[in-house]
């Protein structure tokens, strides 16, 4: 088992021990409903990605075309810095960043959080790769990743002190599914993984195998 998968397993074990049973049941129900809905399947291998420009944590615009001029791009969509699984995944990419760069690739993380919250995510995880803000989920929609949080899950988040709407700078209560893509220099997707289950993440080791 890889380090990321082991870390996820450990977190899940602690969550099951501490979280109220009803909270666990409802969160599992939300995941099952999203999976069964078939919505937001995401772009797939062979698709050409849309051109886009998004701000980084300092507000500087970053264009995907510019990054692709330097080599393949590993594009990972995450829910937000409030999500423990997202943080584990982002740190896993940072651990492998030198190996990724040695293969000529760039990692780019995208979430619906505002640049201020994205900066907090980058800082607390010690990230050296670009973290971009897709406020209002315009790019995430183009990748077919966006879904609405059910009302009962919104109430669970609020009861836990989590205001996703505040993090995202709007009142939509929408998120992207966790997703990872390898984009070739011509803008075509070489690898794609989109998960309705937010606890399931692609290990960077698997990404490295697809880059080599």
In short:
This protein is of the alpha/beta class and 212 residues long. The protein has helices at residues 3-18, 21-37, 64-68, 84-95, 97-102, 115-125, 138-142, 151-159, 164-168, 204-211, and strands at 53-55, 61-63, 73-77, 106-111, 131-133, 146-148, 174-176, 179-183, 189-194. The chain has one domain (3-210): Glutaredoxin.
- The oligomerization state is single chain
Strand order of the largest sheet: 5-4-3-8-9
Number of strands: 9
The 3D shape can be described as globular
CATH superfamily: Glutaredoxin
What's the pLDDT, averaged over the residues?
97
Tally of individual domains: 1
Q: What integer value in Å does the Rg equal?
A: 16 Å
